[in-house]
Design a protein that fits this description.
alpha/beta, Rossmann fold, 2 domains, 8-stranded mixed beta sheet, 5-stranded parallel beta sheet, 16 helices, 15 strands
């Protein structure tokens, strides 16, 4: 495997005495040597996301001596991040992630140049941001940005080091059609229906899992830079932490891929939110649909109706583990996945109000019941998070 670093930039790179001491365990490895460490210093990596995957990625890439790391993130640190996003600490809650991340990485290695891009990675800025880097690393958790990271990498002919996590499972690969491999679209030509794949906020993630997948991504990036070993290009590595098993799938470039195929039709960046069928406005995606409109009710209206003891049924479609954390008084738990087999517990004659954590799953439940013939349905906007914010601050938020 050849190094991807520009030889002209490499020729201008040298190590100080301090750097020789710092990287001494690399320098004595025959696979790395002084030449490999100079390549690491000459390398420029764009890291999209400073969260679960971005944390081990940033820490290990900075420690390894990557010369320049770009951080792209628009989010702020939340308490719920601290279970897995080890770049950030309790003192950083409320701060922009790129700020706390950059401080931590500079402390790990002051020799590394950290570029801060405190913004959302979008089709309007992606090309300008990514063009000056050698590798794009995808540490995101949503499909629009995954497709965007892939497309900008293909169009700019840069490797895309991919990783994904959910609950106890993770996957990783390297997408680089210009080096002979497939792209993300070859593996996933179409995004899943909006809301069909739970986010980490909705389904959860084992706190240490990002460490495994993020480190694998970091290893792949280092190998690409020093030009050693077998890349994950053309392979999808799957990890099951619960069973402690790795397996891999062979991937091939799709000659009919609209981006990297023999006759590509995608030649510029597109509207990725439209492509994935979602709209902004909440933690969970909402459907873009011309179907029957969904009636909605605010938590303030719900509280008033509960106080008046009006006749309706309040259904909670979250998971039992979430119901154990907190619940709205008087609600009945029917998890979204159990709705089909428990639909006989509901009567079309009753008015049914449905809520979840923040609104996405409850909208899906309303759509499903509409298709089953139910008419008197309302979605509780904002879910139990809105209830905690606007009605009862003693309710724990998760």
């Amino acid at each position: 495997m050849n190094s991807i670093i520009d030889p002209r930039r490499l020729a201008q790179t040298s190590l100080s005495h301090e750097e020789v001491r710092r990287y001494s365990r690399h320098l004595i490895m025959p696979e790395v040597t002084l030449e490999g460490q100079k390549r690491l210093k000459a390398a420029r990596i764009l890291l999209i996301g400073s969260g679960g995957l971005g944390s081990p990625l940033g820490l290990y890439l900075a420690a390894a001596g990557i010369g320049r790391i770009g951080l792209v993130d628009f989010d702020v640190v939340d308490e719920s991040n601290l279970q897995r996003q080890i770049l950030h600490g309790t003192k950083d809650v409320g701060r922009p992630k790129v700020q706390s991340a950059s401080e931590r990485l500079r402390d790990v290695n002051p020799n590394v140049q950290i570029d801060i891009h405190d913004m959302r990675f979008t089709a309007s800025n992606a090309m300008a941001i990514a063009q000056s880097y050698d590798i794009v690393i995808d540490g995101t958790d949503n499909f629009p940005t995954r497709y965007l990271a892939n497309d900008v990498s293909v169009l700019l002919k840069k490797p895309n080091v991919y990783g994904s996590i959910f609950r106890f499972e993770g996957q990783a690969s390297v997408f680089a059609p210009h080096l002979g491999g497939p792209c993300y679209r070859c593996l996933y030509p179409e995004p899943p229906p909006p809301g069909s794949v739970p986010s980490c906020a909705e389904g959860g993630v084992l706190g240490v899992l990002p460490g495994v997948i993020g480190v694998i991504q970091a290893i792949e990036a280092v190998k690409l830079i020093i030009g050693r070993g077998d890349s994950l290009m053309g392979r999808l590595l799957l990890f099951d932490a619960l069973q402690m098993k790795f397996r891999e799938l062979r991937l091939r470039r799709n000659p009919n891929c609209p981006l990297c195929g023999d006759r590509p039709t995608i030649r510029e960046l597109i509207d990725y939110e439209q492509f994935c069928g979602i709209i902004r406005g909440g933690e969970e995606p909402s459907l873009k649909s011309a179907e029957t409109a969904i009636d909605e009710i605010s938590v303030m209206e719900l509280k008033a109706r509960l106080d008046r003891k009006e006749n309706f049924v309040l259904i909670d479609v979250r998971e039992p583990s979430e119901f154990d954390i907190c619940r709205i008084p008087g609600s009945k738990l029917i998890p979204l996945g159990d709705l089909d087999k428990r639909i006989n517990e509901l009567s079309p004659e009753n008015e049914i109000l449905i809520h979840c954590k923040s609104g996405g799953r409850s909208r899906k439940a309303v759509r499903h019941l509409q298709q089953a013939g139910f008419k008197r349905l309302k979605n509780v906007t904002g879910g139990i998070l809105a209830w905690a914010d606007e009605i009862d601050p003693t309710v724990p938020k998760y």
